[in-house]
Amino acid sequence: MQVYEGLAGIPVVKSSISYVDGENGILEYRGIPIQELVENSNFLELSYLLIFGKIPDENELLKFELDIKENLKYFERILDIVKSLPENLHPMKILQSLVPVFAFDDIDTDIMKEENKYRQTVRIMALVPVVIAFSKRLKEGKEIVFPDKNFYYTENFLYMLNGKSVEKIYWQTLDKTLILHAEHTINASTFTAMVVVSTLADLYACVSSAIGSLSGRLHGGANEEVYKMLSSLPNDEKIIREYIENKLKNKDKIMGFGHRIYKTYDPRAKIMKYLLENLQKEKPTPLLKKAEIFEKIALEYLEEKKIYTNIDFYSGVLYSQMGIPSDFFTTIFAMARVPGWIAHCIEYVRNNKLFRPTQVYDGGHNIHYKDIKSL
Ligand code: ACO
């Protein structure tokens, strides 16, 4: 029996949610190119498209938005729980711990019931941004800002996070980055969510597990690592080149580069960089220049192995420009990926088959127990 390491190239599901052509750098959600969605859609409409398979009409979108806003009423309960957690807990751990608690007094969470899927979806979408914003305010010792239902989703998030309303360019840019991050076929965290839903666990359990999976630095956690790496380096080509050469010599991975599927420039990274340059006109950051120098040098070494810049390279620089602290970057990725995870869980459970892979056993047999005292 052959072992398929990392399940690379092994299809585990038939899905119509998104499509990636890694050779040509194409990404589509429900058949629509990512570029068109970033330009014309917004995160809530896009979430509806991913989860329900169609672009909503005005009434459907309004209802979806109102149902999400209705769940903001739980914010005081969220605040009490976040306050009770250890002060220095990483924001991804806080988020992962909180999502199962969103069930609150749900007696029936059976994932096979349509009404439960919907209730869990809108509640998770409503409360994930609340947890992130409250955790950040508490960590900084600042006053908590409660959600304001008059604001659009991303606008409200940045309002709670920063303690004041922000200019449109900021929340619209953030909204577009959420579209970029919302879905990406069967990546590690989505697969985690699918494994959990295949046991018929509810969406709270699926999303919480997916957040844990996303937190690792080979996946969503890379954006925080890229930021740390860029911040630790001076704006000096020679030193940056030495850093990259050392990393490669030691066979270390350079964060923000490489992808299991893309063997060309990640189309999301291109758009992320464009959004960043656009924001730069409002508020310049020296980090962008450094990132560009780093990228140019890194690609001199990596391109021949078909290793290119991925989405996480520029996202941290962009989030830092919005005043988001680096240890919160991956929580923004998680907030964005919620509709992708949920869409896959709902699709998978329709023709559910419990995930239960097998192994090639390479241990011994008939080895007899030895009492610890005899060793
Ligand atoms: N820096 C240096 N070398 C790399 C990198 C990198 N970022 N990525 C791959 N390689 C090299 C490996 O060293 C290996 O070289 P070898 O054949 O000489 O031993 C070869 O490319 C294949 O590497 P694998 O790790 O087997 O490739 P895989 O497809 O498993 O890697 C991954 C994908 C995990 C994303 C990898 O590129 C990586 O670790 N990148 C850095 C972390 C990162 O940015 N993660 C975010 C990914 S995007 C996302 O999750 C949203």
TrEMBL record:
It comes from the Bacteria. The active site is at H259, D312. Keywords: Acyltransferase, Transferase. Pfam families: Citrate_synt. GO terms for molecular function: citrate synthase activity. Pathway: Carbohydrate metabolism; tricarboxylic acid cycle; isocitrate from oxaloacetate: step 1/2. GO terms for biological process: carbohydrate metabolic process; tricarboxylic acid cycle. Transmembrane segments: none annotated. Gene3D superfamilies: Citrate Synthase, domain 1 (1.10.580.10), Cytochrome P450-Terp, domain 2 (1.10.230.10). GO terms for cellular component: cytosol. It catalyses: oxaloacetate + acetyl-CoA + H2O = citrate + CoA + H(+). Belongs to the citrate synthase family. This is Citrate synthase. It comes from Sulfurihydrogenibium azorense (strain DSM 15241 / OCM 825 / Az-Fu1).
